[in-house]
Design brief:
Elements: H1 11-17, H2 20-23, E1 41-42, H3 51-54, E2 62-67, H4 71-88, E3 91-96, H5 100-109, E4 116-119, H6 122-130, H7 143-149, H8 152-157, E5 159-160, E6 163-164, E7 167-173, E8 176-179, H9 181-188, H10 195-207, H11 225-238, H12 241-248, H13 257-270, H14 279-285, E9 305-306, H15 311-318, E10 329-332, E11 343-353, H16 358-367, H17 370-379, H18 397-407, E12 411-414, H19 416-419, H20 422-437, H21 442-456
Parallel strand pairs: 2-3, 2-4, 11-12
Antiparallel strand pairs: 1-3, 4-11, 5-6, 7-11, 8-9, 8-10
Helix pairs in contact: 4-17, 11-13, 20-21
Length: about 450
Amino acid sequence: MDFQRRWPSFGAMAACILVLAACGGGAAAPSTSPGAAAPGTSASAGAAGSPAASTAQRIGGSVSVIGSWGGSEQDSFMAMVQPFMDQTGVQVQYEGSRDLNSILSTRVQAGNPPDLAGLPGPGVMRQFGQSGKLVDLSNILDLNQMKAEYAPDWLTLGTVNGKLVGIFIKTALKSAVWYDPKNFTQVAGSTPKTWNDLMTVSNNIAAGGKAPWCIGLESAATSGWPGTDWISDIMMRSAGPDKYRQWYDGQLAWTSPEVKDAWQMWGQIVANPKMVYGGVQYVLTTSFGTAASPMFANPPGCYMDRQGNFITDFYTSNNPGVKAGTDFNFFPFPDINSQYGDVDQVAGDLFGMFKDTPQSRALIKYLVTPQAQAIWVKRGGALSPNKQVPAGDYPDQLSKELAQTVVNAKTPLFSAGDMMPDAMQKAFYKAVLSYVQNPAQMDSILAGLDQTRQSAYPKQS
């Protein structure tokens, strides 16, 4: 089954899984970030017990997990699994790496995969699923319960060849521009609603000798991914959902006018040294998680940061004392073509099973529960795909507004890079860095991406 073809039904998901008041649940939205990581750690953070964990059998042993989370995100995952470990006696042995794709591919090829892994998006998940490396979860999870708690499209995205091989445990909204209300209103007035408005605000700030944008592309082996999200946001709003899907599905050339226009529009910002804090070197060498810290300085060094909602966890960790709503808020990424005004970029953290053991079965059953997902939601920086997570579990009004933004989007679209095969995704990351380094080489960069496209996608029969 070609699950990517079923995206037109994704819009219905917003009305069901993400209506906080009606469904009492969290909201969806994006690959969360590839984060810094510390290898070989096991969960130690405390968390409130959960009914799901308290009824679990005590089986002991251990379960190995590889994911992309590091820092505070890793701490939140550890807190999430602590009740499971307390009740079952199973030790969760977590290893984190930003280079998740390479590590998983190498270990799977060597016949030494982890028990469970956070999968680097539906595109890579599909490759593992098609090669028979992932366990069919439909024989492990209660599908009736899953269908009651997850909207159909989340299950469809985790399905390959009719088998459920991936489940979402956390989601994110990526089509957000963050700002400090106290400082932003002084230089911009109201928040922009269109791309032209955004560029007017950006140019006005730059004309005053300040950098309007904070951008950091560094993320170790996955450096460049924040730029791919920029281009995704622009592409879906300028070319529309159909062209956007054709693009990530390998059917639209990178040298097409639609794709080229998206890169050029981003270039209006990233290729102009007056538009970005610290210039090219700062953009290329600064971690996405710390890039916006100058926004909270006095006086501010920059005024806007386009990032997924998970960035709020980095804001509060890196800048003690800043508070949601008071020191940072967001506005939706502005419209470009008014007929595509209801799109939003979303992503999520998928989990798949490589080894079927009693411990891995128990953990994956736990991770899909609202009780488990509520732990991360309460800590901040996460939205839940499980509609049974209460709205009251979100730590602040801003989190609820993030969910509402997705509700209002008639066409949520997954991040393009996460929908692409591994080789295409990696080439996309590298191309972003090359473009920032030398925007004049855009045509050759896009031509190179098109060459990768010819071999990265499976041949259609």
